Amino acid sequence: MSKLNNIFFIPSWRRGLGILILIISNASRYIFSSLKNTRSDSHLIRYIAVFMFLFASINLSSQNTSYQIALLKYNGGGDWYANLETSLPNLISFCNTNLNTNINPEQAIVEIGSPEIFNYPFVHLTGHGNIILSEEETENLRAYLIGGGFLHISDNYGMDKFIRPQLKKVFPELELVELPYSHPIYHQKYNFSNGLPKIHEHDDKPTQGYGIIYEGRLVCFYDVECDLGDGWESSEVHNDSEENRKKALQMGANLIQYAFTQ
After folding, report:
1. CATH number of the domain that 19 lies in?
2. Is the CB of residue 4 less than 8 Å from the CB of residue 65?
3. Is the pLDDT of residue 137 over 70?
């Protein structure tokens, strides 16, 4: 078994826990509402979220170690479906071949406020326009990330001014910080000593990789002026060079490897 498939966190996801998680989620929202004016709610969110993830590991040794990653569907008018057809499926195929992962070849699609989000260790969000998170979606995404989930955001060009205030709602106490080129996410199986590769050019600006770090753990990675998700698409979609597509897939594989082993 590969190192990635031997991590406790990964095979612990069980789609059949949706009903249980829904019950816990609804109960937690009731508690959150009663504590919304106190500072103790963040700790409660953490404990409930961790319980969700740990409960999912029951009978772990007897379960299939295949797991699934998901595309996030959001509200606000932005095109969450921008890279729907080939982007994540191509990344999954690349990782299964080159990292020896065992990811389900079919991507899932999950809404940010759904308890089903807890079934997926890695979720991807992209688009060109507006995104708005409701209070329930904000709480759900925070619980997911605090509990062990990982969010990758790829700005397809035009999302930046909309996504930043939404992330601030999820983690009001934290800043979205630019990660240095020395960060381990750039140095997994594939080495990117100069940071993110440039897939598409827009405003003659350099690529930037931002992160949200919660209690020492990177829970969200956000690529800007890069179009990483576009680079995962099949060649006929954007007519990208094979070299650029390879770099994009390699950086995407680094994200998967880092998220699953940190």
Report:
1. 3.40.50.12140
2. no
3. yes
Looking at the structure of the chain, the number of domains it has is 1
What pLDDT, on the 0 to 100 scale, is given for residue 214?
A: 97
Closest by alpha carbon to 94, among 248, 258, 260?
A: 248
Closest CA to 107 of 85, 126, 128: 85
- The secondary structure of the chain, three-state, reads CCCHHHCCCHHHCCHHHHHHHHHHHHHHHHHHHHHCCCCCHHHHHHHHHHHHHHHCCCCHHHCCCCECCEEEECECCCCCCCCCCCHHHHHHHHHHHHCCCCECCCCEEEECCCHHHHHCCEEEEEECCCCECCHHHHHHHHHHHHCCCEEEEEECCCCHHHHHHHHHHHCCCCCCEECCCCCHHHECCCECCCCCCCCCCCCCCCCEEEEEEECCEEEEEEEECCCHHHHCCCHHHHCCCHHHHHHHHHHHHHHHHHHHHC
Contacts for 42 with CB less than 8 Å, ≥ 6 apart: 173
User: In the predicted model, what is the mean pLDDT of residues 113-139?
Assistant: 94
Band (pLDDT 50/70/90 cuts) for residue 198 is: confident
